[in-house]
UniProtKB/TrEMBL annotation:
One of its GO terms (cellular component) is membrane protein complex. This is Lipoprotein-releasing system ATP-binding protein. It is an enzyme of class 3 (hydrolase). The keyword Phosphoprotein does not apply. GO terms for biological process: lipoprotein localization to outer membrane; protein localization to outer membrane. GO terms for molecular function: ATP binding; ATP hydrolysis activity; transmembrane transporter activity. PROSITE patterns: ABC_TRANSPORTER_1 (PS00211), ABC_TRANSPORTER_2 (PS50893). The keyword ATP-binding applies. Residues 5-229 form the ABC transporter domain. Belongs to the ABC transporter superfamily. Macrolide exporter (TC 3.A.1.122) family. InterPro entries: AAA+_ATPase, ABC_transporter-like_ATP-bd, ABC_transporter-like_CS, ABC_transpr_LolD-like, MacB-like_ATP-bd, P-loop_NTPase. Keywords: ATP-binding, Cell inner membrane, Cell membrane, Hydrolase, Lipoprotein, Membrane, Nucleotide-binding, Transport.
């Protein structure tokens, strides 16, 4: 299995009030092609910090991050922007949809930014949204959608450009339990159908067990957990 993500010796510290806090203390992690890994840990354990590093969203990290075979540390700002655009998809706890655009347009936009023609981008958006049960909601704006529907749109947007790796930060954390189960099941199904790898941060043990493998973040270190049966 090819490693889509390979992290080696990743460290991140913050200084507050003259005190240095070590959040990540030498993280080693590999995620294989098509593998869905749960990043488990309580709030404040550094899950979001790790995802920000892997997502090339923030500097100040020491160590190696290789995404789809490319070493991020060797890239300038433009190179990191390109790698983030071409290889990564993101799903957050809060969907962050553009309120003035409808569901289809929210999924079309990242494709247009990547220079895909409008007809192909619209067809891709409609296909993804229909597969998530939103074929009848394409023209609805986020304010007209339920929380679960908004998060489904966010999932479609994350997969619009067929990323090698999807990063999800508590993707169902803002939903009730029943809706969370439905959205997570659809997220996992679609990621697997698309053949992407995924790293999913969660504090929910029950949801983590639905994924292929579990790693736990504890006091700045990563520990291997159980695999899905």
């Amino acid at each position: 299995m090819n490693d889509i993500l390979k992290v080696s010796g990743l460290r991140r510290s913050f200084t507050q009030g003259g005190v240095t806090i070590d959040v990540l203390r030498g993280i080693d992690l590999a995620v294989g092609q098509g593998e869905i890994v749960a990043l488990l840990g309580p709030s404040g354990s550094g899950k979001s910090t790790l995802l920000q590093a892997v997502g090339l969203l923030e500097g100040g990290f020491d160590g190696s991050i290789r995404i789809d075979g490319e070493e991020a540390a060797k890239l300038d700002n433009d190179g990191r922007t390109r790698l983030r655009r071409d290889a990564l998809g993101f799903v957050y706890q809060f969907h962050h949809l553009l309120p003035d655009f409808n569901a289809a347009e929210n999924v079309i936009l990242p494709q247009v930014i990547r220079d895909r023609d409008m007809a192909s981008a619209r067809a891709r958006a409609e296909s993804l949204l229909t597969s998530l049960g939103l074929g009848h909601r394409l023209d609805h704006r986020p304010s007209q959608l339920s929380g679960g529907e908004q998060q489904r749109v966010a999932v479609a947007r994350a997969l619009a450009n067929r990323p090698a790796l999807v990063l999800a930060d508590e993707p169902t954390g803002n939903l009730d339990e029943r809706t969370a189960d439905i959205v997570l099941a659809e997220f996992l199904r679609l990621v697997r159908e698309e053949g992407s790898a995924a790293l999913v941060a969660t504090h929910n043990e029950r949801l983590a067990e639905k994924m292929d493998r579990v790693v736990r973040l504890h006091e700045g270190y990563l520990e291997e957990g159980s695999a899905r049966n």
